[in-house]
């Protein structure tokens, strides 16, 4: 017996209007007009697949991080080619050092592949499956309009959970509709009509047929068809082919989010679980060099789970979006546009790997210290506590702060210091229950920033070292719900 | 209880360069310029100096490591030259070293040399720099105005002051310093400004506009100190002596504890209380004739008036607007233009502040001269509000 125990997601805040992409590019690519509707999610400059995966995992797990045996991270846009990306996620989540971590990539079906692997091992272990993508696309390409940056996370383990795996079927064929060589920036793709007919329809169809047969189900028995393939009418075509009701095809979020690469089928699954009813049959399709199809049956536990998980979920993240119409900002954040950054950007961000390793709990997981004698909480932990009345030596224990609510003590918006998205917001914050931090702020709406404003912590990119390519991660404060 | 420094050391001579964008001068040329004035003022030869302290805030683009560059520039007679750095309070630190050397009897005559060459960065404002390995992983990469702007947000919230009132008070601080700086031939910025110009200036770090920020300057200042006895033996009549030298350094309480609300400088309050005690001053508002404080930003000067126990807590902004710290006010502050207009070559600033008090006490301040000053206070601050070094020194007429 294997099932999904909990689920979560993350969608970055900015929603780039496709009309803005089209307007900027119509002189060159007027044919994009047909795609110029709705919006796509774009990562902030300090977000990547790793940070989005961490946020989706927090959304999935809440503060309960015990009992996880493995972390599988699926992406086609890992920030590190070497340095295990799942390992970064594990550190940020402050999981046990005894967990197994692995990256799974190389295909748009990496997300469903990771999920299937986790489900197959569910008899003996609990696996956190996270998938995130922030796929790069050339300016003026169709993919630039179709893609969306997002992440999903599913905790998989023994028992039925909120949705039990009924059956699955995989088709693996080296069908090369696009590829990207090691070190290359962009995909090289083939004609979309061929991909639609020979790839999406035939390979996706074969996977669906196989899964339905393995489940002993007719197409009519499927309550929701979840197809993570971008392309108008693809899911409807597959439904028709398999005898699945047209009404069972779920919203693929192409209008509001875009396609989140290999994370997309998992994200749509998490979205469906937010409203699914016990007994619903969900059929999930992940496509890429073949296709995976997974059949789930939603259990009674879904009702209680939705109440107990204090998650924001796909719906919550979608509601949090803010409209962005500045296409140049997107180009700059995605690295397509080399702006004059000013000499202050020359500041060297070279990593100090020895110090990072020594301080990994503070830096990666935002672990502070609490004095076992005075109870004083502080960040970071130190040999001698900060309590001015009792500077005791060696009395501190680990004290996680990442999930603590915080509030603003002092703040500014700094137009002088270098940041990819000026002005730079930062200030002093106090954590509920003790502890204080001088923190950078991100995803800021200036109207929601004031002394006392509620904040929550998020794992973000602190800096990228242009010379070595290293990415420094750390925690930043973000205006939390309630600061409106 | 230590007996303190009061009247144990006298200033023998001082010098200070013109501050500003000194495209013409390297750091060692600036040092020589200040030194030439100081040694002439002291009326001694280089060979009579027993020990020296050199203060520089930013190493890399200045004169480099160690005390050697100053020893070479001034061709000192192979005496000890100790380089000190304590953020923007470095200048006072060099002065402290020289004064303590004389007070201990280790040196008869000692010298403090402060210098900073900031205009070789290629951009405005202070250079961006590392603050150590750990800070670079978890700290905020902010700017000096951004760090000090936080004082304003917290002060405003703490005392329930409107944004407009605080902006106006901060603006007055700068208008006053520009008026003072205009009368100082050595000042970097010598143009008076009106309040509208200040209030309508571009925003640097909310709520600090361009005119809320001090100048970033090149410059050097030098102090030569000795005992009062030696000073008299060398023919000096009116002596300016050191009354108090106090330094207070953050230990992380503001940054990591929970008791500080960000609206004031914890260390300045501690250093000020100790300095008044050391100098025997019981009513600073009435007894301190002149103040040169660390007005790196207008809000810093404003809260410093409270932290120095001159204004009552929460009333500093009203005192500023009432003109209490203007040149003709009850407690003139930044009579030389301050960091705001005299300029702020980091390593030299603490000594520059003492230089103005020294000139005023000896009646040598020209157009800026105040009537019969007795005590001059300097407040030299390094770091940022949540982690800093605060130095308060008091000099005065011998016997006062």
Notes on the protein architecture:
The complex is a heterodimer of chains A (484) and B (400). Chain A is built from 13 helices and 22 strands. Chain A has helices spanning 18-25, 49-61, 85-92, 110-120, 142-146, 192-215, 234-242, 264-273, 301-308, 313-319, 327-333, 353-358, 360-365; strands spanning 2-10, 14-17, 39-42, 70-74, 100-104, 127-133, 150-158, 163-172, 178-179, 188-189, 224-227, 281-287, 290-298, 322-324, 367-371, 377-378, 396-400, 406-414, 424-431, 436-440, 454-464, 471-479. In chain A, strands 1-7-6-4-5 form a 5-stranded mixed beta sheet, sandwiched between helices. A 5-stranded antiparallel beta sheet of chain A has the order 20-19-18-21-22. In chain A, strands 8-13-12-11 form a 4-stranded mixed beta sheet, with helices on both faces. Chain A is globular. The model of chain A has no long low-confidence stretch (mean pLDDT 95). With 400 residues, chain B is an alpha/beta fold. Chain B has 15 helices and 11 strands. Chain B has helices at residues 27-42, 68-74, 90-104, 133-138, 144-159, 163-181, 195-199, 228-233, 253-256, 266-279, 284-287, 298-307, 316-321, 338-341, 346-361; strands at 10-16, 51-55, 80-84, 109-116, 203-205, 208-209, 219-226, 240-249, 290-292, 375-384, 387-397. A 5-stranded mixed beta sheet of chain B has the order 1-7-4-2-3, with helices on both faces. In chain B, strands 8-11-10-9 form a 4-stranded mixed beta sheet, with helices on both faces. In chain B, strands 5-6 form a two-stranded antiparallel ribbon. Chain B is globular, with a radius of gyration of 19 Å. Chain B starts with 9 loop residues before the first strand and ends with a strand. Chains A and B meet through strand 18, strand 19 and strand 20 of A and helix 4, helix 5, strand 5 and helix 9 of B.
């Amino acid at each position: 017996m294997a099932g999904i125990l909990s689920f979560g997601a993350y969608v970055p805040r900015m929603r780039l209007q496709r009309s803005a992409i089209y307007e900027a590019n119509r002189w060159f690519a007027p044919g994009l007009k047909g795609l110029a509707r709705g919006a796509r999610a774009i990562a902030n400059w300090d977000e990547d697949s790793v940070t989005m995966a961490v946020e989706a995992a927090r959304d999935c797990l809440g503060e309960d991080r015990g009992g996880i045996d493995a972390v599988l991270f699926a992406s086609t846009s890992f920030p590190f080619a070497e340095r295990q990306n799942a390992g970064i996620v594990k550190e940020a989540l402050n999981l046990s050092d005894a967990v197994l971590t692995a990256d799974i990539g190389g295909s748009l079906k990496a997300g469903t592949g990771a999920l299937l692997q986790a489900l197959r091992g569910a008899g003996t272990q609990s696996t956190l499956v996270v998938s995130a993508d922030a796929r790069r696309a050339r300016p003026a390409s169709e993919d630039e309009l179709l893609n969306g940056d997002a992440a999903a996370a599913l905790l998989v383990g023994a028992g039925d959970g909120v949705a039990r795996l009924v059956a699955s079927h995989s088709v693996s064929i080296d069908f090369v509709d696009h590829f990207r060589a090691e070190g290359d920036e962009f995909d090289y793709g083939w004609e979309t009509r061929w991909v639609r007919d020979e790839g999406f329809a035939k390979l996706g169809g074969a996977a669906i047929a196989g899964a339905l047969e393995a489940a002993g189900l007719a197409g009519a028995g499927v309550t929701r068809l979840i197809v993570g393939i971008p392309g108008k009418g693809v899911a409807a075509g597959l439904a028709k082919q398999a005898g699945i009701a047209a009404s069972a095809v779920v919203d693929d979020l192409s209008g509001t989010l875009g396609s989140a690469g290999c994370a997309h089928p998992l994200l749509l699954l998490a979205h469906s679980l937010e409203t699914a009813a016990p007994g619903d049959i969900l059929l999930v399709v992940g496509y890429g060099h073949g296709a995976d199809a997974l059949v789930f049956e939603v259990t009674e536990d879904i009702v209680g789970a939705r109440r107990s998980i204090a998650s924001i979920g796909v719906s919550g993240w979608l509601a949090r979006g803010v409209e962005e119409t500045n296409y140049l900002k997107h180009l700059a954040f995605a690295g397509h546009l080399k702006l004059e950054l000013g000499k202050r950007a020359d500041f060297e961000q070279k990593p100090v790997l020895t110090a990072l390793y020594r301080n990994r709990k503070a830096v990666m997981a935002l672990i502070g210290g609490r004095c076992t004698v005075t109870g004083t909480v502080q960040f970071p932990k130190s040999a001698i506590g900060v309590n001015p009345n009792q500077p005791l030596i060696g009395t501190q224990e680990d004290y996680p702060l990442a999930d603590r609510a915080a509030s603003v003590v002092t703040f500014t918006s700094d137009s002088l210091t270098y940041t990819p998205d000026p002005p730079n917001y930062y200030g002093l914050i106090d954590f509920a229950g003790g502890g204080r931090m001088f923190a950078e702020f991100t995803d800021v709406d200036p109207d929601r920033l004031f002394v006392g404003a509620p904040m929550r912590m998020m794992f973000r990119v602190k800096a990228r070292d242009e010379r070595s390519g290293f990415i420094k991660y750390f925690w930043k404060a973000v205006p939390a719900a309630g600061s409106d | 209880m230590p007996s303190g420094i009061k009247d144990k050391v006298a200033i023998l001579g001082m010098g200070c360069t013109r501050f500003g964008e000194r495209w013409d001068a390297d750091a060692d040329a600036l040092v020589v310029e200040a030194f030439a004035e100081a040694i002439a003022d002291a009326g001694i030869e280089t060979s009579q100096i027993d020990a020296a302290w050199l203060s520089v805030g930013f190493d890399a683009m200045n004169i480099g490591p160690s005390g050697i560059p100053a020893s070479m520039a001034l061709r000192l007679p192979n005496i000890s030259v100790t380089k000190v750095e304590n953020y923007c309070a470095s200048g006072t630190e060099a002065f402290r070293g020289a004064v303590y050397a004389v007070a201990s009897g280790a040196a008869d005559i000692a010298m403090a040399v402060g210098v900073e060459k900031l205009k070789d960065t290629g951009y405005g404002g202070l250079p961006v720099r590392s603050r150590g390995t750990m800070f670079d992983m978890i700290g905020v990469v902010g700017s000096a105005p951004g760090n000090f702007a936080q004082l304003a947000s917290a002060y405003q919230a703490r005392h329930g002051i409107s944004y407009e009132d605080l902006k106006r008070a901060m603006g007055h601080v700068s208008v006053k310093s520009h008026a003072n700086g205009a009368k100082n031939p050595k000042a970097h910025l010598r143009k008076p400004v009106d309040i509208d110009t200040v209030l309508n200036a571009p925003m640097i770090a909310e709520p600090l506009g361009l005119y809320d920020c001090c100048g970033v300057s090149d410059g050097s200042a030098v102090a030569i100190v000795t005992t009062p006895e030696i000073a008299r033996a060398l023919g000096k009549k009116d002596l300016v002596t050191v009354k108090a030298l106090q330094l207070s350094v953050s230990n992380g309480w503001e940054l990591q504890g929970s008791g500080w609300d960000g609206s004031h400088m914890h260390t300045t309050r501690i250093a000020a209380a100790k300095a008044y005690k050391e100098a025997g001053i019981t009513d600073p508002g009435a007894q301190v004739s002149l103040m040169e404080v660390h007005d790196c930003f207008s809000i810093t000067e404003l809260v410093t008036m409270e932290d120095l126990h001159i204004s009552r807590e929460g009333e500093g902004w009203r005192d500023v607007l009432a003109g209490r710290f203007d040149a003709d006010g009850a407690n003139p502050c930044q009579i030389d233009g301050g960091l705001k207009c005299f300029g702020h070559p980091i390593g030299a600033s603490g000594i520059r502040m003492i230089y103005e008090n020294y000139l005023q006490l000896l009646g040598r301040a020209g157009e800026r001269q105040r009537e019969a000053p007795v005590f001059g206070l300097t407040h030299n601050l390094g770091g940022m509000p949540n982690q800093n070094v605060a130095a308060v020194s008091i000099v005065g007429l011998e016997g006062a």
